[in-house]
């Protein structure tokens, strides 16, 4: 299992290498959260990333200047500001996801159909036994 987890971690790491040439890991984490949850209030986003809202706001300034995210007033509350992905930020996450899927597909193609079927069953069983990881856990790696 440890060897398989290292192999998967290698696939994950390779899938984000290109992204980390244009953004930092903390920025990539923000992009991943926004890609999966849509527009989020600044305070909620900072909380998901275990960041202090005042420091986080300056961090978002740099991301906004880079064209990765945009801040907009919330339609539901004039005091609340939402953070949303810009197309450039969405493209970074989409490309990393495509690379990950492509790498996994290439690995699976090396197995015959029977091996793939057994692997899918085994991984489904493992996933059910492990339970769904907390989003905060996945954010550590920008997943």
Question: Could you walk me through the main structural features you see in this protein, from its secondary elements to its overall organization?
Answer:
69% of the residues lie in helices and 8% in strands. It is mainly α and 143 residues long. It has one domain: Winged helix-like DNA-binding domain superfamily/Winged helix DNA-binding domain (Arc Repressor Mutant, subunit A, Orthogonal Bundle), CATH 1.10.10. Helix 1 (2-17) packs antiparallel against helix 6 and helix 3 packs across helix 6. The longest helix has 23 residues, at 87-109. The radius of gyration is 18 Å and the shape is elongated.
Provide the CATH architecture.
Orthogonal Bundle
From N to C, what is the helix and strand string? HHHEHHEEHHH
Whole-angstrom Rg: 18 Å
* Overall domain count: 1
Q: Widest sheet: strand order? A: 1-3-2
Strand count, sense and barrel status of the largest sheet are: 3 strands, antiparallel
Low-confidence runs: none
Mean pLDDT across every amino acid position: 89
The count of helical stretches stands at 8
Topology:
Elements: H1 2-17, H2 19-22, H3 25-37, E1 40-41, H4 42-48, H5 53-65, E2 69-73, E3 81-85, H6 87-109, H7 113-130, H8 135-139
Antiparallel strand pairs: 1-3, 2-3
Helix pairs in contact: 1-6, 3-6
Organism: Sinomonas cellulolyticus
Protein name: MarR family transcriptional regulator
InterPro entries: HTH_MarR-typ, MarR/SlyA-like, WH-like_DNA-bd_sf, WH_DNA-bd_sf
Brief summary:
With 143 residues, the chain is mostly helical.
């Amino acid at each position: 299992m440890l060897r398989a987890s290292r192999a998967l971690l290698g696939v994950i790491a390779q899938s984000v290498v290109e992204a980390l040439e244009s953004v930092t890991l903390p920025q990539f984490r923000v992009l991943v959260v926004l890609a999966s949850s849509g527009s989020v209030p600044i305070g909620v986003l900072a909380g998901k990333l275990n960041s202090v809202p005042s420091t986080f706001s300056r961090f978002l300034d740099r991301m906004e200047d880079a064209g990765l995210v945009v801040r907009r007033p919330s339609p539901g509350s004039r005091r609340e500001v939402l953070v949303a992905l810009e197309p450039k930020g969405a493209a970074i996450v989409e490309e990393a996801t495509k690379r990950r899927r492509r790498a996994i597909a290439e690995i699976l193609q090396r197995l015959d159909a029977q091996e793939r079927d057994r692997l899918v069953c085994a991984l489904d069983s493992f996933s059910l036994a492990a339970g769904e990881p907390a989003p905060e856990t996945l954010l550590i790696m920008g997943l």
